[in-house]
């Protein structure tokens, strides 16, 4: 069995989707969800799904002692970032070399970097009248949105699409492809 942990800072719709996808999977299990936001909606989702939720302050996350202790109790094969907005500290990158992946709601390297997350990305895509957007799933390194790309999927946009329409189209790609990318990375 391969074990994953999902890190999320916001609504957690991807975390929930990943949870459902792997719920009865023979080779992969979601061990816990971690969030760095005390009021993130992902906490409600985790409680409803009855999956362990770890809430950690940004300070403790940067420091590492608490999380490394938690991780020593859960043998995790892959950390999956799903709307997790903290930069990953070097202690975690060293502990999980090439075993932390992220999803970004645009076609990197376009619309990436600090401050480019969630709706901000779709707003910028709309302002630039892009004809396509999509998702990028990539390994995580010490910079925002810069690690090696695992998979990209795109969708076409129309000039009539609102920011919410773009978010919906991109969201559908995320829900379809992120679980599959996780399987692929784990060889499951
Ligand atoms: C997702 O669209 C994800 O791609 C994005 O945050 C959203 C989280 O939604 N991540 C980034 O922008 C990372 N730079 P969710 O909490 O409903 O899964």
Chain-wise SSE layout:
Elements: E1 2-7, H1 13-22, E2 28-35, H2 41-49, E3 53-55, H3 58-63, H4 65-73, E4 78-81, H5 90-95, E5 100-104, H6 118-127, E6 132-139, E7 149-156, H7 163-186
Residues 8, 10-14, 82-83, 103-105, 117-118, 121, 174 line the site of glycinamide ribonucleotide.
Structure characterization notes:
With 188 residues, the protein is an alpha/beta fold. It has a single domain, classed as Rossmann fold (3-Layer(aba) Sandwich), CATH 3.40.50. The chain contains 7 helices and 7 strands. It has helices spanning 13-22, 41-49, 58-63, 65-73, 90-95, 118-127, 163-186; strands spanning 2-7, 28-35, 53-55, 78-81, 100-104, 132-139, 149-156. Strands 3-2-1-4-5-6-7 form a 7-stranded mixed β-sheet, with helices on one face. β1, α1 (13-22) and β2 (28-35) form a beta-alpha-beta unit. α1 (13-22) packs parallel to α7. It is globular. It starts with a strand and ends with a helix. 34% of the residues are buried. The structure holds glycinamide ribonucleotide. Glycinamide ribonucleotide binds at residues 8, 10-14, 82-83, 103-105, 117-118, 121, 174. Glycinamide ribonucleotide is lined by residues 8, 10-14, 82-83, 103-105, 117-118, 121, 174.
């Amino acid at each position: 069995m391969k074990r994953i942990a999902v890190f999320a800072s916001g609504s957690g719709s991807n975390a929930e989707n990943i949870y459902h996808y792997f719920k009865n999977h023979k080779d992969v299990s979601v061990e816990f969800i971690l969030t760095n936001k005390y009021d993130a909606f992902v906490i409600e989702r985790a409680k409803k799904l009855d999956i362990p939720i770890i809430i950690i302050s940004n300070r403790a996350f940067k420091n590492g002692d608490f999380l490394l202790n938690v991780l020593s109790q859960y043998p995790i094969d892959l950390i999956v970032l799903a709307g997790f907005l903290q930069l990953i500290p070097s202690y975690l990158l060293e502990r999980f070399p090439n075993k932390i992946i992220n999803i970004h709601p645009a076609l990197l390297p376009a619309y990436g970097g600090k401050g480019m997350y969630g709706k901000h990305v779709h707003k910028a895509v709309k302002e630039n009248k892009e004809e396509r957007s999509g998702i990028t799933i990539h390994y995580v390194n010490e910079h925002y949105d810069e690690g090696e790309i695992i998979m990209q999927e795109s969708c076409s946009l129309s000039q009539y699409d609102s920011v919410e329409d773009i978010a919906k189209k991109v969201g559908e790609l995320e829900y379809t492809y992120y679980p599959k990318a996780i399987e692929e990375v784990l060889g499951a």
